[in-house]
Amino acid sequence: MSVLIKNGRIITASDDYRADIFIEREQITLIGADLSQVQADTVVDATDKLVIPGGIDVHTHMELPFGGTFASDDFATGTRAAAFGGTTHIIDFAVQYRGQTLRQGLETWHKKAEGKACVDYSFHMIMTEVNPGILSEMDALIEQEGVTSFKLFMAYPGVFYLDDGEIFRVMQRAGENGGLICMHAENGIVIDVLVEQALAAGNTAPKYHALTRPSSMEGEATHRAIRLAELARTPVYIVHLSALEALQAVTEARDLGIPAHAETCPQYLFLSYDNYEEPGFDGAKYVMSPPLRPCHHQAHLWRGLQYNDLQVISTDHCPFCMKEGFQGLPRQKELGLDNFSKIPNGAPGVETRMSLIYDGGVRTGKFSLNRFVELTSTTPARIFGLWPRKGTIAVGSDADLVVFDPEARKTISASTHHMRVDYNPYEGREVQGVPTQVLSRGQLVIDGDQFVGSAGRGSFTKRGCFNYY
Ligand code: URP
Ligand code: ZN
Ligand code: ZN
C-alpha cells in the first residue's frame, strides 16, 4: 500500500517548503519537488494545504477511574476523536494503585487499549506507592516496556498523593535510570484544608473548586518540585501548568540552567475563572485540576510559549458527562451537585487542540507555523522519546501526517464533535484551520468529515528516554 501526497506546503519545526511526499510500508520513503512520475495506490491532493506532522498529545486519560466514575472516552472513541482533530499519537497515563506493582498497573492499561486504538499510543506510569521493589521496577519499565516517564502527584492526598520524601526517592532513581518525572504540582495538603473550610461554610458550588485551589499553591508546588529534582540531579516536566506563579518558577529555574520543562493546555489559554460563574451547575464543565485561572494569566502563558519557557501544549483530556445517560454513561459531573469536591476532575479536549492552537496562536501572529508544529508534535516527541520516528516529516519517519486547511473554518460544538461526552467547553467558538486528511502510519484514517480508519489499528509504541537536548 503506497500513498502520494501531492502539492502540499510541508511544515516541520524547522522547514517550510513545497514538495510531494511518497509513503510505502507505513513510512515516508521519498520527499521531492515533483514526484508525479511515482506510481502510488492512493493520491492525496494537498494543493493550498499545509502538510504537518501528526499531532502528539502527551497527556490523555482514556477511561481513567476517577472521582467515583471513569473518564467517558475509551481508547476507541478517544483516539478516533483525536484523529478527527489531527492528533495521531497519544501518551496516556497508566496507574499503579496502592498494593500493585508497576507492571500490574501497566497491564491493565494495555488491556484497555488493545484492539481499540485508532491511532498509535504509548503510556506514562502514575506511581502512587514507593518502596525499594517499586523503585527497581522503574528500571525494568524503561529497559523492557518502553515506558520511560513517571507521573507523581503533589495533590489529591489519599488518592494519588506522594509526600516529598517519596517524590525525592523516585527522582533520585530517575536520575540514575534516565526516566523523566512528570509532576502534578499543586499543594494538595493545603488545598484539602481550604476545601474542608469551604464546605463547612456551606460553599458547595462548582466555583469553589477554583477558589480552594489558589494559583499560589501551584506556584509553591512547582518551585518545590523543581528544587527537589535539582537536588536529585534529574530533569523534571511540569504537567498542565495553568498559572503565572508556576510559570515564574519554571522560568527562573531555566534561567539558572536547571532542566525544568513544562506543558500548558488549551483550556488555560482560552478559558478562565469566569467560566465557573456560568449559571446553575454549568461551572462543573470546567472542574479540573489545576483549575481555570483569572484571565490575566493567559497572556503570561502565551508569552511562555513564545519564549520557550513552556515547551509543549497537551490537552489533559479527561472527559466526564454533565448529564446521566449520555450514550449509556452513568452519573458523572452530577456526582458533585451538592458538593464541588465530589465533581470528577477533568474536561474533554483531545479533538480540539490543533485547531484551537493554530487559530489562537498562528493566525493571531503569536507564533509561527514552525513553532505550532514544535509545540504540538516535535517537542513532545523529543521530550518523550518518540523522535525521530514521530514528530517530524523526514525520510524514514512514520507517515503520521495531517493535511491541514489553513483557511477552512468550523464552529466547535458537542453536536458535531466525536468525543464521547455531552458538552464541549468551547461550544460555539469559531476556529480557522481544520485537518482535512489524517494519515496514521501511511493509512488514511480521516478523509474530510469521514473516519476511514479502524479501531485496533493503532499500536502501542515503546518509547526511548528523554531526548530534548
Ligand atoms: O482534572 C484533571 N486534571 N484530571 C485528570 C487527572 C490529572 O490530574 O491530570
Ligand atoms: Zn494531573
Ligand atoms: Zn491529567
DSSP, total strands = 19
Helix content: 25-40%
Describe the main β-sheet briefly.
9 strands, mixed
Radius of gyration: 21 Å
The span between the termini is 36 Å
The small molecules bound here are: N-(aminocarbonyl)-beta-alanine, zinc ion
Derived from helix and strand composition plus strand pairing, the structural class reads: alpha/beta
The fraction of residues in strands falls at: 15-25%
Explain what you see.
With 469 residues, the protein is an alpha/beta fold. Helix content is 29%, strand content 23%. The protein has 12 helices and 19 strands. The protein has helices at 75-84, 102-113, 132-145, 164-177, 188-200, 207-211, 215-231, 244-255, 266-270, 296-306, 353-362, 369-383, and strands spanning 2-11, 16-24, 27-32, 42-45, 50-53, 55-60, 65-66, 69-70, 87-96, 120-127, 149-153, 180-184, 236-238, 260-264, 312-313, 401-411, 430-440, 443-447, 450-451. The strands form 3 sheets. Strands 1, 2, 3, 4, 5, 16, 17, 18 and 19 form a 9-stranded mixed sheet that branches. An 8-stranded parallel sheet has the order 6-9-10-11-12-13-14-15. It has a two-stranded antiparallel sheet with strand order 7-8. Helix 2 links the parallel strand 9 (87-96) and strand 10 (120-127). Helix 3 runs parallel beside helix 4 (164-177) and helix 7 runs parallel beside helix 8 (244-255). The radius of gyration is 21 Å and the shape is globular. The mean pLDDT is 98.
